[in-house]
């Protein structure tokens, strides 16, 4: 009698675990064919210059339609990273975003593409960026790459070399979701980022409790020579506080949700008329 477990309970647990694994397995398999089956879509969210209110850049955000449902990138990107499809998918997004930005008659704003750390530490990533730039004709200084701070020291040599190669081409590198990940301040100093994106958690906290983190982040970014972008700006109150604190650029639902290319062009026309 020393171990009385309920068989029923174990059964349910196993079944739930099995379902989850089966679901993940299906997604992983599905991801392998997502490109050829044309299930991937890139949407774009505007990033606004905080002082002039002009469009400063657009951020490319990936969408995947699988079995008639839209799967969130927060769910499928980690799976793509685990199964290795992130390299093909990442290259596809990069090409798509560069082409869309280059085809626009207005060249005054940049295009920001999220890249996985796995891409950034891969030996042929710089060649992949070169191909996207060459085939689209996009000016390299218009391309920004966003990487979430979860960088591991093992990969430092390739990472550092890739970042310097990108910077030599005048491509800008941004640290995304700043303040939520694992990177150290030391890394921030040694890697020489161009942009720092303040995570929306701090933007949301600012108006309710304290603006200390945003304030300190802006000062630190200035000292390091980084531009700052605040993410997840949803209210006028947040926008004006961020302007007061000297944040360079603003992004969030207050200005626009991520939009398909055509809807973005319409948004841009009305934005220019009304700002
Ligand atoms: P992220 O790069 O930090 O992107 C910002 C996320 O916040 C996006 O979610 C965006 O839709 C959402 N957002 C923007 N403004 C607001 C706002 O005002 N309020 C709120 N509540 N949310 C806002 P999304 O599109 O679901 O993307 C989630 C994450 O998935 C991204 O976070 C990024 O880390 C990753 N991701 C998306 N596309 C790609 C991609 O092409 N490659 C890679 N490696 N990762 C991607
Ligand atoms: Mg991002
Ligand atoms: Mg972010
Ligand atoms: Mg994020």
TrEMBL record:
Residues 24-272 form the EAL domain. This is GGDEF-domain containing protein. The lineage of its organism: Bacteria, Pseudomonadati, Pseudomonadota, Gammaproteobacteria, Alteromonadales.
């Amino acid at each position: 009698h020393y171990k009385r477990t309920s068989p029923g309970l174990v059964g349910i647990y196993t079944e739930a675990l099995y379902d989850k694994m089966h679901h993940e397995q299906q997604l992983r398999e599905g991801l392998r064919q997502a490109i050829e089956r044309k299930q991937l879509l890139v949407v774009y969210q505007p990033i606004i210059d905080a002082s002039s209110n002009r469009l400063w850049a657009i951020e490319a955000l990936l969408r995947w339609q699988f079995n008639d449902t839209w799967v969130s990138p927060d769910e499928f990107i980690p799976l793509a990273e685990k199964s290795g499809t992130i390299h093909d998918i990442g290259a596809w997004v990069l090409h798509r975003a560069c082409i869309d930005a280059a085809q626009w008659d207005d060249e005054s704003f940049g295009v920001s593409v999220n890249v996985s750390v796995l891409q950034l530490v891969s030996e042929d990533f710089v060649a992949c960026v070169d191909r996207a730039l060459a085939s689209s004709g996009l000016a390299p200084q218009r391309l920004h790459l966003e990487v979430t701070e979860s960088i591991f020291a093992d990969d430092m040599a390739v990472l550092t070399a890739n970042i310097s190669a990108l910077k030599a081409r005048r491509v800008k590198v941004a640290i995304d979701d700043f303040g939520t990940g694992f990177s150290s301040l030391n890394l921030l100093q040694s890697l020489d980022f161009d942009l720092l994106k303040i995570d929306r958690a701090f933007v949301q906290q600012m108006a309710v409790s304290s603006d200390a983190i945003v304030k300190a982040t802006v000062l630190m970014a200035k000292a390091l020579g980084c531009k700052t972008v605040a993410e997840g700006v949803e209210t006028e109150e947040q926008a004006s506080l961020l302007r007061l604190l000297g944040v360079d650029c603003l992004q969030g639902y207050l200005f626009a949700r991520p939009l398909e290319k055509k809807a973005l062009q319409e948004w841009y026309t009305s934005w220019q008329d009304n700002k």
